[in-house]
User: What shape does this take?
Amino acid sequence: MREREMSNESERELELDCMGALCPAPIIQLGKAVKTLSVGETILLKADDPATESDIAAWARLTGNSVAPISKHVYRVTKK
Amino acid sequence: MVTAGAFDGERPLHPAGAKVLLAAFEQGWAGPNGLSDASAKARQLLNAAREEIGAGLGVSGTEVEFWGEPALVSPIAIMGAPNFSVGKFVAGATERQEILAVGAKSRAMVTIPVSAHGLLDRDQLLEEVESTSVVAIQSANGETGVRQELSDLSGLVGGLSAHLHLDFAASGPLMKLPSYWSTADFPAKSWNGPAGLGIMLINKDRRWANPLAAATSGSTLRSPGSFSLPLVLAAAASLTGWLDDATRESERIRGLITLMRAVIKQTITDVDLAGSGAVNESLPHILSASMLNISGEQLVNALAQEGFAVASGSACVASAIEPSHVLKAMGLLTHGNLRISLLHGVQESEVKRFLALLPGIVERLRLDAGA
Assistant: This one.
């Protein structure tokens, strides 16, 4: 996991690269990473496991966080 | 026969079927179409079994066809509909894969979405179905136990006189045929009959032609006849015995599943229980729960070590690469999935032991995963 500077804002955003990781590892890693955030902060998840696409929406519903798909295999998650 | 802890949906042959099976191999060995005395005897046994199965399923014996390959029954029934090559093929998003695969052979396929509780979107069904359509609907889902409102949905399709194929693989005769239907699939396994026997029902008032007729034995046969007569006889005996059992057992088993849903919800956090669990929306014996942050394979293995055989629809089991299309269509978590199917005769003590163990196993697996 690494931090990167948002290009057009002064906020910082964590990036979590789970490309190649298999179900349920991306969701577990995401949950751990989100615990380190404050409310309103975001994390960019990259994951290509076929289950992540549907599981990330279910994860958000169960945990009360929000998810927005950015592009194929990339999701922006906001801690609520 | 030991079935304690067998919660994975595998069904042993019903004792009534097992009893007739050996005798059936002795008496029903000849082909039923020959001229010998043995063939005449076989023909007599086959006709009696056809009538018995028809009566058990609520149809006439002439509407019952036997197939030696159960997985082909639905695809063949659908492809034999009069308009299959010209009309739309309309199927629910949670149908079995072998039914959805028929879409590749159709002129055009439309998939009807389901609600979060797994119920078909009736408005979209109404919008998509035309008189030339071929529609496939399952009575209930084998992964989640969600049952469809067949009388309502069949009425919608019947109003347009479209071909309606119904898949009873999950519910078996627990659910009845509605007043409108064209073809139906009842594997003998659905009532603890023998494996390897498919049963296709063809409504005598609807048109249907075997799409493989030219490739099998001629022009008019509705099935190739390549089934095992002893299995048919065992299926008939199993059906009669199973219906008797179901009368006694269904409500007791529903009580156990209701208890399981309540305890799982109460004792395990971050869990997705499939379906509403309401009586009119669920089969009595099936439960599906997906638990966040654990692997389905590890869960199945951990329960196996405690003597429980369960199934999982998760992608994270050795046999699967893609997540369950059923859980996905319902928007449910596809990992950490546990699928339970209770058999007639299941003991309440087994269920309670399972419920006492499950929360601790889930907690341990989550800790091990660092969640």
Notes: Chain B has ten helices and ten strands.
